[in-house]
């Protein structure tokens, strides 16, 4: 393909190339057909985000997520990650399952007061989003290539060292909330982000205005005080980190606050008033799978490793492995035991104590000690 047959990389529109504004209108239509609720375009200059990234790393807020430190400032430099990139197309994909009731936030909060129930974060109840978002972004790239011819691109969703929230904010998909996630007036924050890095100088969008104002509901709602200041998250305290990313023992002082949350956490998002506008997915991929909502802690505790692997096939939960899954459940069962005194819980813990490895055994002992 000759240069004059496509949108020029330096931003000029050569004779015969499609009009970039009209092309972007088409791209938006395709994105909607593919299940994306929002789409926007930004350039690759994230220099103003670099001090925040460095401060976050220097404070040690990434804990044991070595992959966050490994790439340093490359996270804020998309053109170093994929040479030739001049624009990033960011997309949002809502993940509330189809048919979610308008009162879903109250329903989710009510679960936390059912100590025997296992609470898995909403985003993780269906198919692994990495695959869904990446596959659909690749479709988007293919449609664009069919229109303008081959072009340089890469698709990402949580898969590259890149500041996705920053990019999406600059592309006008929403603003960064005080809980650090991206949110939008018409979509809340219950969506995933993904990106298409392109070597096409498409017109960029304007960033969205922030609308948190004086609200601090997410900060107040966080069970472990992980949002240490507006826009600053100490991941080491975040239940999402503790249950998903963190290997090894869960700090004892944070265990009680985890309640019955065994995979991820939604509290800061449930508290956010803008999430009354959260959208449901147009895709069946995020439908709730069996066992992922409404199951009891003891039902999930009964899954052996083979059962865990079978039931989490294609789910994001699979990647934490059975050992971390059991560790998380032991903490939640300990919390339920403290709260209810239901002897069946203590029995189930004791029955598993003998065959447990050192990590699980320590968590079981802690759990049993929650009540005399
Ligand atoms: C690492 C990570 C985590 C970590 C850390 C989260 C975090 N806020 O950093 C943990 C495991 C805790 C986590 C949890 C969750 N995550 Co996460 N996570 C990521 C990941 C891979 C990187 C985020 C990152 O770069 N963090 C680094 C810090 C530096 O970034 P930051 O908080 O945005 O900080 C900026 C500013 O706040 C400021 N700043 C921060 N600290 C400080 C300190 C000082 C002193 C200063 C001056 C400035 C400053 O500067 C920074 C740069 O601008 C992204 C995917 C990606 N590649 O971007 C997904 C991502 C952010 N996560 C996502 C989701 C869905 C979640 C959960 C909701 C999952 C769940 N239900 O359990 C929770 C929400 C917790 C929360 N409130 O953030 C989505 C968010 C979608 C959206 N609507 O925004 C993403 C985008 C994944 C995706 N592709 O969809 N996550
Ligand atoms: S996900 Fe949960 S623990 Fe993490 S910051 Fe939000 S409310 Fe706090
Ligand atoms: S709860 Fe309030 S402060 Fe937090 S993100 Fe939502 S609007 Fe912003």
UniProtKB/TrEMBL annotation:
Pathway: tRNA modification; tRNA-queuosine biosynthesis. Pfam families: Fer4_16, QueG_DUF1730. [4Fe-4S] cluster 2 binds at residues 222, 238, 265, 268. Residues 200-232 form the 4Fe-4S ferredoxin-type domain. Residues 1-12 have a biased composition (Basic and acidic residues). It catalyses: epoxyqueuosine(34) in tRNA + AH2 = queuosine(34) in tRNA + A + H2O. Residues 1-20 are annotated as: Disordered. Its EC number is 1.17.99.6. Cob(II)alamin binds at residues 75, 158, 182, 193, 240, 265-266. Catalyzes the conversion of epoxyqueuosine (oQ) to queuosine (Q), which is a hypermodified base found in the wobble positions of tRNA(Asp), tRNA(Asn), tRNA(His) and tRNA(Tyr). Belongs to the QueG family. This is Epoxyqueuosine reductase. It comes from Sphaerotilus uruguayifluvii. The lineage of its organism: Bacteria, Pseudomonadati, Pseudomonadota, Betaproteobacteria, Burkholderiales.
């Amino acid at each position: 393909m000759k240069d004059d047959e496509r949108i020029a990389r330096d931003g000029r529109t050569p004779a015969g190339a499609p009009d970039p504004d009209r092309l972007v209108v088409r791209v938006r239509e395709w994105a909607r057909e593919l299940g994306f609720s929002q789409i926007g375009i930004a350039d690759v200059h994230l220099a103003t985000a670099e001090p925040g990234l460095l401060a976050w790393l220097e404070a040690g807020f990434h804990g044991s997520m070595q992959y966050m430190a490994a790439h340093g400032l490359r996270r804020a430099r998309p053109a170093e990650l994929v040479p030739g990139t001049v624009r990033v197309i960011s997309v949002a994909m809502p993940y509330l399952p189809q048919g979610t009731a308008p009162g879903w936030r109250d329903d989710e909060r009510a679960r936390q007061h059912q100590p025997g129930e296992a609470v898995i974060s909403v985003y993780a109840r269906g198919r692994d989003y990495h695959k869904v978002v990446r596959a659909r972004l690749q479709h988007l790239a293919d449609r664009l290539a069919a229109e303008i011819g081959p072009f340089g691109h890469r698709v990402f969703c949580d898969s590259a060292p890149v500041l996705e929230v920053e990019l999406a904010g600059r592309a006008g998909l929403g603003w960064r909330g005080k809980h650090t996630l991206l949110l939008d007036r018409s979509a809340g924050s219950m969506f995933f982000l993904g990106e298409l890095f392109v070597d096409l100088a498409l017109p960029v969008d304007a960033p969205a205005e922030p609308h948190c104002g004086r609200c601090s509901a997410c900060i107040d709602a966080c069970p472990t005080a992980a949002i240490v200041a507006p826009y600053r998250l100490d991941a080491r305290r975040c239940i999402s980190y503790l249950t998903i990313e963190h290997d090894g023992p869960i700090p004892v002082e944070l265990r009680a606050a985890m309640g019955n949350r065994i995979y991820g956490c939604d509290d800061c998002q449930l508290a956010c008033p803008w999430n009354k506008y959260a959208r449901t997915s147009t895709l069946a991929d995020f439908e709730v799978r069996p066992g992922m909502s409404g199951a009891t802690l003891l039902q999930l505790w009964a899954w052996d490793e083979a059962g865990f692997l079978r039931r989490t096939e294609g789910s994001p939960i699979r990647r934490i492995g059975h050992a971390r899954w059991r560790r998380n459940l032991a903490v939640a069962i300990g919390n339920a035991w403290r709260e209810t005194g239901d002897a069946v819980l203590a029995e189930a813990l004791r029955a598993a104590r003998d065959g447990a490895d050192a990590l699980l055994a320590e968590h079981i002992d802690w759990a049993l000690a929650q009540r005399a």
